[in-house]
Every structure is written in structure tokens, then in C-alpha cells.
Amino acid sequence: MEAVIFDLDGVLIDSEQVWDEVRQDFAARHGGVWTPTATRDMQGMSTPEWGAYLVSAVGVALTPEEASAGVIAEMEKAYAAHLPVIPGAVEAVREVASRFPVAIASSAPAVLIKVFLDVTGLPVPVAVSSEECAAGKPAPDVYLLAASRLGFAATSCYAVEDSTNGLKAALAAGMTVLAVPNPHFPPAADVLAQVRVLSSITDLPGALT
């Protein structure tokens, strides 16, 4: 194995609930009605995909572009007030980066990935948003692009994920997948059965061979 590619939301920052709260509040203010499946449906979607979902499935009375821009602006405000970095995540990435080339492959928009990297100062030379890809997770596109930019075959990379759609994306890319399950939105058991499960991000450095 030659490189390690990290998801961001739910793996390095405890942000899935923040996204959920911001989207629900935004939807309620713009005529939408939250559905029981909306939260999980949007996990892993690219920005254009979840913007369109808010309009078509939730009923937000805006264009998809207006919906996504509004939510991202609210997320920037939330991160400016408090960036919810998962305890031990920064140290884990630094240790892994001392041994392997590393990258981020995230469904988060590029502006929010940059906020995370600016605040933490982590040595991550490649950071890819699914905004750059034809499809978000569970499609493998963002992982394949990250591996390509690192200069490695996807099959020689580890992927670190937390959600059902993220795990499916990394598996579809042919990577060796390690899961740090999100306690707020646990991944599907049948998908977890296909990967190695860690109890915490702090276990990652020791799990890499």
C-alpha cells in the first residue's frame, strides 16, 4: 500500500450533524419539508447533487444553485464560530503523513475543505472535492481523482471513511477501506462487513501496515 486518502466530514471533523442542522433550518426557511430519508440520502452527494435534491425532494423554493450557495454560506459561518475537529484526528493525520503520501477526497465543497486545512495546518498536498467530479459518493469518482493526483493506482491506496455512501465509493474505487463509523449516522451493517472497522481515528496509524 502506497498512500492514504481521507474523507473529511465524519472522519476528521464532527460535522455531519452541523450539515444536517444547517440544511434542515435552511429548508424550513425556504418552503421545504424535511423527509425521513433526506439526511442519509444527501450524505456523500456532491454540491450540485444535494442542491438539486433540496429543491426536488425537500421542496426548497429556490434554484439548486441558490440552495447550495445559501447552505454553504451558513456552513462557513458555523465553522468560523467553531470548527468541530474530532479529537486526535489532526495528530493521526500528521503521523500517517510522516509515513505515506496523503490526500483528502470529500463531498464537502472546496471552500470548506480549505477552511479545515487552513485552521489545522495539516500537510495534505492533494484535496479533492466531489464538486470537481461527474458524480458524488457512492460513485468512486472523487477517490479515483484523488489517487490519480497523488500519482498512485487506486488499488494501492487506503481509504478512511465513516458513512455508507463513502464506504461504497471507496470500495467501488478498489481501495483497501478502513471505517471509523459515525456514531450519529451509523453505516449499513452489510457495507461494514466488507471493510476493516476501527473504533477511533486514533487507531488508524497502528492499523496501517
From TrEMBL:
SUPFAM superfamilies per record: HAD-like
Cited InterPro entries: HAD-like_sf, HAD-SF_hydro_IA, HAD_sf, PGP-like_dom2
A Pfam family this chain is assigned to: Hydrolase
Entries under Gene3D superfamilies matching the protein: HAD superfamily/HAD-like, Putative phosphatase, domain 2
PANTHER family: 2-DEOXYGLUCOSE-6-PHOSPHATE PHOSPHATASE 2, PSEUDOURIDINE-5'-PHOSPHATASE
NCBIfam families: HAD-SF-IA-v3
Protein name, entry field: HAD family phosphatase
Organism: Lentzea roselyniae
